[in-house]
Structure formats: C-alpha cells, structure tokens
Amino acid sequence: MSAASVDFELLFASYPGCCAALSPELTVLAATDAFLDLVQQPRAAVVGQPLTAVYPAENPATAGQLQLALDQVRLHRSRHAVELPPDAARPGQIWRVTHWPVSDANGRLRYLMHHAQDVTSEHAAEQQTRSDFGLLATATHDSIWDTDLRTGLTWRNEHFHKVFGYNPGPETQTAGFWEAHVHPDDLPGVQAQYEAALAGTDAVITTEFRFRRACGAWAEVVDRACIVRDEQGRAIRVLGAMQDVTAEREARRARQENARRFRALAELQSQFVWTSLPDGRQDYANPYWLSYTGLTEEQSYGYGWMQALHPYDATRLRARYARPEELEEVFDLELLVREAATGQYRCFLTRSAPLRDGNGRIVQRIGMATDIQQYIDVQEQLRATTERFRVLSEVIPQLVWTSDAAGQVQYFNQRWLDYTGYTLEDSLGPAMWNALVHPDDRQAARARWTHCLFSGDYYEAECRLRSRDGSYRWFLNQALPLRDDHGRILQWCGSCTDIDEKKQAQVRLQSQNDELTRTNQDLDNFVYTASHDLKQPINNMAGIFEELMRTASFTDPEAPAMVNMFGQALQQIYTTIHTLSELVQVQREPTEELPETVDLALLTAEIVASLREQVRHGEARIEYDFSAAPVVPFRRTNLQSVLYNLLSNALKYASPDRPALIRLTSAPESGGVVLTLTDNGLGIDLDRYGSQLFQLFRRFHSHTEGTGMGLYLVNRLVQSHGGHVEVSSRPGEGTTFRIYFKG
Questions:
Q1: Is 334 in the same domain as 223?
Q2: Does some domain include residue 471?
Q3: Contact in structure between 120 and 93 (CB atoms under 8 Å)
Q4: Percent with pLDDT over 90 in the chain
Q5: From CA 75, how far away is CA 99, in angstroms rounded?
Q6: pLDDT greater than 90 at residue 586
Q7: What is the DSSP string of 280-313?
Q8: Are residues 625 and 649 in the same domain?
Q9: Phi-psi region for residue 197, left (φ > 0), alpha (ψ -120 to 50) or beta?
Q10: How many domains does the chain divide into?
Q11: Range of the domain at 267
C-alpha cells in the first residue's frame, strides 16, 4: 500500500462524521470511527463486507431500505436519502442515511459515499409539525401535498385524493409520481420552474399545469408551493396547495366564447346593440350604433351615448336609471335617436334586460333598439286614413259599416243609425241583422255572406232592410276585404245602397216589357197569319190572271197597259208578303242556335246564277275574291238573304250612265271576317239619309220599284248573328257595304 493510500485511510478514519466509502458493488472500502460506533463492529469486520451485511441482521427492513436506496443511486447517479427506523442496536434512534455517487474523470462510477446522521430529535420536531400540518391540511378545501427533498417522499391530504380520484395511500416517491401525472406538454416547464426556485432563494412558487385524474381526464390546476430551507439555506421540503380550476377555466372560456359570439352577432345586426353597467354607463356599442349616430367609441361610452338622444328622452332616461328598483326586470322604451347623416330624429323601440351574477346582483344590462319610424309613420297614415274614411262615410248617402276578418261588425255610420233606429251598441252582433233583414231574404243573404267570409270573394247581395218605422226598403249590400301584404284579410268594408226606387222601376219596367212582348208576339202572329192567309188568294189571283192572259182577247187599245199594271201590282203584293214572312221568320229564330261554316264563293255563285236575267239586262259584271277568308260562321239561309238583297239592290240601283260593276271580297279582321261589297251605282246621300238607312219601308230612289225592307232585313240578320254593317257612299259614284262577322 502506498503512502498516499495510508494517508487517505487515516484521514478518512479520523473524519468525525459517520461515513463509509463503498465500491460500485456496494462493498465497504473504508469507514470512519463514528460509523464503526454506529454498527458496533470492529474495522476488520466491516471493511470488505457488503454494506447491507454490516448493519444488524435482526432488522431485515433496514437491509431492504438500504438496498433500495443504493440501487436508486447506481441507477440514477443522483443523491438519495432514506431514514432507518429504530431497532435493537439503536433503540429509540432514527438515522437518516444519504448516498451519492463519485465518478472518475471519464464518468465511470468509482465509489458510493454512505453518510449516516442521527435525526431523532429533528424527526420528533418534524413529526409534531407534520401532525399540526396534517390537521390543517385535513380542514382545508385545498389539495395539500408535502415533499421531503431529503428522502424524496411525497405526502398528500385526503382532499387531494377526493378531488383527483386517487385512493389514499402511503407516501410515494416524488419523481415518479409527478412525471406520471403532469401533462407531458407541461412537465418540462414545471420542472424548469422548480429547479430555478430550488437553486435560488425563492420561498414561494406558483405553477399552472394539467394534472391527470384517476379516470384519465386532465384537470387544470394552480399549484402554490412554499420552499422550506434549513439553517444553511438548503431546500429540504416543499409544501404545496393545488386548486382544481378546471370548471372555473371552462366557465371563463365559455364566457369568452359567448362574448365573442355576442360581439360577432351584434356587429352583424342592422339594429342598435349595446351593453351597459347597471347605472346606464355604456361599455359597448355595435358598429351600427356608431355609424348611425356618428359617435366614436370613446364619445359613446359612459354616459356619452345619451347625447344622440332627443333631450327630452335623455332626461327621462337618466331619471329612470336613478331609480334602480325600476330596472330589476326587462323594460321597453320608445326613444328618438338623431341620425348623424341627416340630423333628423327617428323613433326606435329599445328593449333592455339585466344580467345577474351568481348572487342575483345585476352586473350588466344588454339592450337592442329597432327602428320603428316607418311603423309610426304608417300608424299616423292609418289614423289619418281612418279619420278620412270616417268623414267620408258620414257624408255619402249609403249606410256604411266595417267588420273584422271573422265578420264581427265594428263600425256603423250615422246614416245607419238614423235609418234603423238602433244605437251603436245595439247594432253590434249577429242578432241585429236577423231582426233587420226581411225574412224572405234572410237565408240567401246569410249564405252569400258566409261564403265570402271563407273565400274572400267580393260580397254583393240584394235584400230588404226594415227601417225604424217598420217598413222595408230594398238595399244593395256590397263589401270588399282589406288585405295585408301577405293576402290575409284584415277587415271588411261594406255599404248598403238604397235601391228601392230602382227595384220599383224594374217592376214597372218588367211589367211593361211583358206587355210589349205580348204585343210583339201578337203582331208577329198577326203578320205571320196575314202573310200566310194572303199568299193563297194572291196565288189564286196570279193563276186566274195567267189563264185570262192566255184565253182572253181585249179590243180596248188601253187593255195591254192595264193588264201590265195589274201584273206589276200583283207581283209587288206578292213580294211584300214574302218579305214580311222573312221578317217574321227572323224574329222567331232562336238566337242561341249555332252558326254554320258557309263557303262564300259557292253561295255567291248560286245567288249570281239566280240573278242572271237582271245581270244580262243591265249588262252588269260581278267579280268576287274570297281567298283571304273563304268561309264565315253564319246560318246559310240567312246569309243567302243578306247577299241576295245586297246584290239585287246593286243591280236595281245601277247608274244609267255606265254598266254596273259589283265587287265582293273578304278578309280576316279582329278575330272575325269582314265581307266587302262595292258597286258603282247611284249612291246614297248619307248626310241626308244616313240615320234612316236601315229603317223599315224606307226608300231613297223612286225611279224603280221596291218595298223598302231589304236593308232592314240585311241589318237585322247580321245583328242577330252578333255582327254589324257599315256603309260608305257618294251620290253618283257608288256605295260600299262592309259586313262584320264575329269569329
């Protein structure tokens, strides 16, 4: 052994502390005299022995604790302490043994230093302190923990286990516990804070982190710890109080989110939105308020927002805020607010509601305001309109009333009250109508009114209403529904117009019409009978005349002229009777009979063929072109009469100065057809005779024979089919007839 080694052993052995040097295999290499006194063995029996064999064997717990502590040092290469309980060798004594590693220049483990210290009195004092601390920790609502930095053990109170869900148990190793329960993202920061505090002089440290509950969920905690130091200033204990602030933080985040949503929603509104303190001082206003009033946030906050109100409203609002008892519930107010762009005041309906804290105290008010100026204007217009309606209803000669959408009458004008003799109160309700309407008219009037109430149709009914003297007069009852923008019926406005004189006149007129109808029928019957009865004698006379002309001879030189005059008279009588028969037939034809589709060219050709003798005699030319509208809807026999009369008249009243030229054309017009007939005959002076053109038995040329019934018959036939006739003519040039057939 070298001198250096001998010197080291002598030096180590004389060290007053209770120490031993161990090999990495935990064998005792050297020991101080104080250590030999502790284990009560000679140096020769200690050096070279495992440390766990040196301590008395009768206490296996001591060997186990030593072995665990030494293994921790070798594994973690860090200082580690453990307390050894009293045993037979050390009755009543508690020793704290501390181990720390010693490495060479290359970092290899060379020795483990073992140091033992009697901490019996210190432990007794700490136990008393811990007892007092435990009582306090049990009474508090915080989660209390106590870490002994010398032993590495942590103690937790009952509330800690209750809050985080862990079962109460013995003290645990500090490092492993916190590393397993602090959120991995928060652990480095917490460790850094504690290392800095322990290395410095801080006495109190506050950390915030997420802590794992027994169920696996993460709790948000605030941990406030106090560092206890010994007389040399070394940190020996850390006492902490953890508060679970999860619910508080979640509530705060919820409030922040709600506030964010409230602000986002408020800034989208086209209404005023604000918040204020309970006394009315504004602390938020949305952009619409600021834009409308022209105020900045600084100008609007506090009581500045009231400068945008009408002075009268600002005064009464301040007075209301001065009475807190009136602000407990939601309240509505109409306020006039000045628009910065125009300088004009508009009316807003404001609603304010209180927000309360957990104790029910009002901490804030939230308000909204809606522009109701248009509504106010409409109300004013409605009031003015209602007043105008009332005035108008009082001056018109009708009985005027209004009802709601269900038909309940709300208003009668004074004329109604004067006529019926009822008061306004007596006039309201359905019983009044039953008493006023004539029993014979009541059911029909009620049915029509009920139908209109459900359908919304225009109401119109005629009925008799009893006057105050008991007599009945006829009235025309009319009503229209007043609807909103969505088509819903709001009100019915009605009137009752006295039509009694009209009804009496209608009765008289109907009686006269019935009499005229009977007279016309009698005349028709007479004409029909007369024409029918006269035809046979005329036919007999014609037969006798023809036989006389065939067999008789006349010596009188004037006989031929007389015979010719008789024949003409006979023909004229026959023509007149035939025309009268046609007129009677037109009168008798049903107007609702459906027309035929008549081919104009075919019908015209037939008529021209029947008039060939007149055409040849007058050297006339008849032209027609119906290609534009080849057919018309008409009864064929009637259209034949129309064309025959027009063509025969054109031939009859041809000009003696030129050959007759007659043109017929057709064309579509206004959904129907117009037939045009033009001639170059004598013409008619319409300025003189135009009003008499279609009169019965009216003639305008006397140089030729006629009955004066042809144009009357034409016009009557065309009108009976829904058409009409137009005539243009110039004397000496010709005439144009336009016949309009409906489609």
A1: no
A2: yes
A3: yes
A4: 21
A5: 12
A6: no
A7: S-EEEE-HHHHHHH---HHHHTBTGGGGGB-HHH
A8: yes
A9: alpha
A10: 6
A11: 250-371
Residue 579 included in any domain: no
Residue 583 in any domain: the answer is: no
Whether residues 617 and 726 share a domain: the answer is yes
Structure letter (DSSP) for residue 403: E
Q: Is residue 344 part of a domain?
A: yes
Residues 208 and 268 in one domain: no
Instruction: Name every residue whose Cβ is closer than 8 Å to that of residue 499 and which is 6 or more positions away in sequence.
Output: 462, 474, 475, 476
Same-domain pairing of 610 and 651: yes
* pLDDT band (50, 70, 90) for residue 90: low
**Residues 421 and 461 placed together within one structural domain of the fold:** yes
- Helix or strand (DSSP H, E) at 497: strand 489-498
Cross-strand bridge partners of residue 401: 412, 494
CA–CA separation, 718 and 695 (whole Å): 15
Q: Read out DSSP for 460-516?
A: EEEEEEE-TTS-EEEEEEEEEEEE-TTS-EEEEEEEEEE-HHHHHHHHHHHHHHHHH
Cα–Cα distance measured from residue 685 to residue 26, given in angstroms and rounded to the nearest whole number: 156
Interval 698-720: pLDDT, tens: 555 555 555 556 677 788 888 88
Q: Is the pTM of this model over 0.70?
A: no
Q: Which of 249, 215, 248, 241 is nearest to 160 (CA)?
A: 241
635 close to 593: Cβ distance less than 8 angstroms: yes
Same-domain check for residues 638 and 598: yes
Mean pLDDT over all residues of the chain?
80
Burial class (CB in 10 A: 0-12, 13-18, 19+), 540: exposed
Residue 477 CB neighbour total at 10 angstroms: 21
Structure tokens at 483: 């609807």
> How many Cα atoms within 13 Å fall on the side-chain side of residue 6?
3
Q: Which helix (H) or strand (E) holds 339?
A: none
Look up the CATH number of the domain holding residue 223: 3.30.450.20
C-alpha angle 696-657-648 in degrees, rounded to nearest 5: 35
